[in-house]
Every structure is written in structure tokens, then in C-alpha cells.
Amino acid sequence: MKRGRRRPVTQAMKDRSAASRTAAREALHAYAVLCLNDPAELERFRDIAASIGWKLDPASDEPGYSLQNALLLAAQRRPLTHCGGFDYWLS
Predict the structure, then answer these.
(1) Residues whose CB is less than 8 angstroms from the CB of residue 32 and which lie 6 or more positions away in sequence, other chains included
(2) 71: how many CB neighbours lie within 10 A of its CB?
(3) How many helices (DSSP H) and strands (DSSP E) are in the chain?
């Protein structure tokens, strides 16, 4: 198997990554505030979290999504049909 060299990480790549993380944190915060202020939205989140398998204990080995990931999925306001990580979609 041929081993290639990794391309160097540029400052622009680091900046895009930081901007992406900041945007995710802001979306998460905005949706959490919405859930706290709107009982109907909180109920909608509970339904979504139950349907995708919300993991109550992040340290456990049981399958499921963390609270943060469940909030980010629900904040997108799309119908959730198939949620999976990179390895899930490769298989």
C-alpha cells in the first residue's frame, strides 16, 4: 500500500475550522434558548431526541447521540430520516 504525504494544514484551513465551530456553537445556543422559551419547541425537541436515540449518559458505551448532537440535529429543522456518522455512510 502506497503511503502518501499529508497535505500541510494552512492558516486558512484552521480559520475555516474555527469559524465552523463558532457557527455550530451559536446555532446550538440559539436553539437551546428557543427550547427554553417555547414549550412547543421543547416538546418537538423531545420527540426528535427520542426518535434518533438520545444518549443520556455521554460516558456510556450504548449507541445514541449526545445532547449537543441531538440539539444540533433538531436545530436544522429538517425531517430526520437517516442520521449517521462518517463510518455509517461508508458502510
Answers:
(1) 71
(2) 20
(3) 4, 0
The rounded distance, in Å, linking the Cα atoms of 36 and 29 is 11
Residue at grid coordinates 445514541: 64
| Interval 12-33: pLDDT, tens | 999 999 999 999 889 889 988 9
Residue type present at position 53: G
Contact (Cβ atoms closer than 8 angstroms) between residue 80 and residue 59: no
Coil/strand/helix, residue 54: strand
Extract the C-alpha cell encoding 49.
431526541
Q: Which three cell numbers stand for residue 77?
A: 429543522
